[in-house]
Amino acid sequence: MYQGSCLCGAVSFRIQGELAAIQICHCSQCRKAQGVAFASNIPVAQSAFELLGGSDQLRAFESSPGKQRVFCGNCGSPIYSHTDKLPGVLRIRAGTLEGELPSRPEAHYHVASKANWWNVSDGLPCFPGGKP
Fold it and tell me: Which residue spans within 65-125 are E strands per DSSP?
């Protein structure tokens, strides 16, 4: 079991089961939503996600048709996103999880639109678009 929270602690959650590999996304929407060069996402079955507190603080923004980005309305921390294209899957922001994680990045996605000021040099596979 893994626990996580937003910056202010108003939103807290836990995930039951093993964590998948971390997906690094360089698309322009993730950069804007996170305020950094990329987003680090872990896909999790919605059934494995349990909100422990802060449901009244959760806000959602539809960043593209059918895609919701969910964040804390108090501190602004991104918590997860979900899309109609992958029903039943949440993409948890890895930085919200507490403690040591066994998961490691698997690849870089959407590198065709990555920030020109960020070099990808860790040897992981790079894909110009989404996960093939």
Answer: 67-72, 78-83, 89-93, 105-109
Q: In sequence order, which residues have a C-beta less than 8 Å from that of residue 13 and are 6 or more positions away?
A: 3, 4, 5, 49, 50, 51, 52, 79
Average pLDDT for residues 65-85, to the nearest whole number?
96
Closest CA to 74 of 30, 9, 12, 14: 9
Supply the pTM of this predicted model. Answer: 0.91
DSSP per-residue codes, 55-70: GGGEEEEEEETTEEEE
Handedness of CA 77, 82, 88, 91 (dihedral sign): negative
pLDDT, one tens digit per residue, over 93-129 is 999 999 999 999 999 999 999 999 999 999 999 999 9
CA–CA gap between residue 54 and residue 14 (Å, rounded)? 13
